[in-house]
Specification:
Largest sheet: 4 strands, antiparallel
Structural class: alpha+beta
CATH class of the domain at 258-301 and 337-463: Mainly Alpha
Radius of gyration: 36 Å
CATH architecture of the domain at 258-301 and 337-463: Up-down Bundle
Strand order of the largest sheet: 1-2-3-4
Strand content: 5-15%
Number of helices: 12
Helix content: 55-70%
Shape: elongated
CATH topology of the domain at 258-301 and 337-463: Outer membrane efflux proteins (OEP)
Number of strands: 4
Length: 463
């Protein structure tokens, strides 16, 4: 009976060196993210790493933020993401624990006779040898759970990057909108002042005066509302970047990035999403994990949960010692494992259906965001190349007619207002393009293909 105990001790020594350091697992996750999105997340686990991250954030905040700088700050400084990274540490610790067998158990007691002297002592040392045989299987399951965790965390990194991009483009567009609304407010103020002078001179009636005045007051309200939305957009970005206190005093570049002349390749995007998305890969691991657990439970249905082997020694009151082997096991009489198998079977089917639903949704999201991006691109290009130049031409012609005294001041102001309104619509479609592009990247599980599809872009722009 000493052989099982010797084997247990040897196994304990061998698995005792299983690492609990999660850094290699995190580096694998970071490599996966970098390959798909060119992002570089950092996990601050020590005071030195935290100081380095804070220094990098401070440096990035010193200049007007670009969208890439904002994303990098979030990957360095977002506390929720840093908390998510700890899931890798938890899974790595679970793997290290799964690589270890149960500790041996020692028990004993002392009995004293009712008459006479001496004592009766008994000691037992047992080890669950069944756990030793299960240890390789348990370790494989824990390793698979770690892989699933790395994919899930990588998906959270990409999700945060997408949120930051969307919030950044929204803020940029809103700031540009405020400047456009300010121009409209100034124009309506000029029109209202001019109407007041005309009313005082008796050339217009009170209805026309009130009409011009209320337009100006409404434009002032629009500016105030837009400025409040800018502040809200900044706070949303502050939360995503993990900034507070003096660090919330930052600026962003004034204009949205220009829409590229040629569009990205659009063929095969659904296939890219199904292949690359980390949440889909994590779901596949989930199906595999439940399948393994179900197969193992079916094979070991009538096996005892534990088989304890060991040595028992007893010394009676006369000083004589008796030593022998000891075995303890649980008999599958009342619980035959039928319920647990049914549960695992249901969980396996559920995991399969969830994977199917996720794949269907991923394909749909790609198509939806692709179409939304192309529609916003077409609209923005149409505004930029057709409507805005036409509005500018109308304004120029109105100015010439005004100088020739064929048009009045109101006609000139209305032409300018129409031009600014067209620019607002152009700005909305411009913003929507970049937001849809960021969402499409999120739906694909990484960055968009780098090579532009010139034929597709040229065909759409020629409409």
């Amino acid at each position: 009976m000493s052989r099982p105990l010797t084997a247990a001790a040897s196994m304990t020594l061998l698995v005792g060196c299983a690492t609990v350091n999660p850094r290699p697992a995190f580096d694998d996750m970071r490599k996966t993210v970098a390959e798909r999105s060119r992002l570089d997340p950092e996990w601050s686990r020590t005071s030195e790493e935290t100081s380095a991250a804070e220094e990098a954030v401070t440096k990035l905040l010193a200049a007007p933020l670009t969208v890439d700088a904002a994303v990098q700050i979030a990957l360095l400084n977002n506390p929720t993401l840093q908390a998510t990274f700890e899931e890798i540490g938890i899974s790595q610790a679970d793997l290290a624990q799964a690589a270890r067998v149960e500790n041996p158990e020692i028990s004993g007691f002392v009995r004293f006779p009712s008459e006479g002297t001496g004592s009766n002592t008994e000691f037992s040392l047992v080890q669950n040898v069944f756990d030793i045989f299960l240890q390789p299987l348990r370790k494989k399951v824990a390793a698979a759970e770690l892989e699933q965790t790395k994919l899930r965390v990588a998906n959270e990194v990409l999700a945060l990057a997408g949120e930051v991009r969307e919030a950044f483009f929204t803020l940029q567009a809103r700031q540009q909108l405020v400047s456009r609304l300010t121009v409209i407010r100034d124009l309506t103020e000029t029109a209202a002042d001019f109407a007041r002078k005309q009313y005082d001179a008796g050339t217009i009636n009170e209805l026309e005066l009130e009409s011009r005045t209320v337009i100006h007051r409404e434009s002032k309200v629009e500016v105030v509302v837009a400025e409040a939305e800018v502040r809200a957009d900044r706070e949303r970005l502050n939360r995503l970047l993990g900034l507070w206190g003096p660090r919330t005093v930052w600026s962003v570049e004034d204009r949205l990035p220009e829409i590229p002349d040629a569009e990205i390749p659009l063929a095969g995007l659904e296939r890219v999403a199904v292949t690359n998305r980390q949440d889909l890969q994590a779901a596949r691991w989930g199906v595999d994990l439940v399948g393994r657990a179900l197969a193992l439970r079916r094979k070991t249905r009538f096996f005892p949960i534990g088989i304890h082997l060991g040595v028992n020694t007893e010394k009676d009151v006369g000083g004589e010692r008796v030593t022998g082997s000891e075995i303890a096991l649980q008999l599958p009489i009342f619980d035959t494992g039928k319920a647990s198998i049914a549960r695992l079977d249901a969980e396996h089917r559920r995991a399969q259906r969830q994977l199917e639903a996720l794949a269907v949704n991923a394909r749909s999201e790609v198509r939806e965001e692709r179409d939304r991006m192309l529609a916003a691109r077409d609209l923005a290009l149409y505004y930029g190349r057709v409507l805005l130049p036409q509005r500018a031409r109308i304004l120029d012609l109105t100015l010439r007619h005004y100088n020739a005294m064929f048009k009045g001041a109101y006609d000139l102001l209305q032409a300018k207002e129409a031009e600014v309104e067209a620019e607002k619509a152009y700005l909305d479609s411009w913003r929507n393009y970049w937001i849809a592009r960021a969402r499409l990247e999120r739906a694909l599980g990484g960055s968009l293909p780098a090579e532009p599809n010139v034929a597709t872009a040229a065909g759409r722009e020629g409409r």
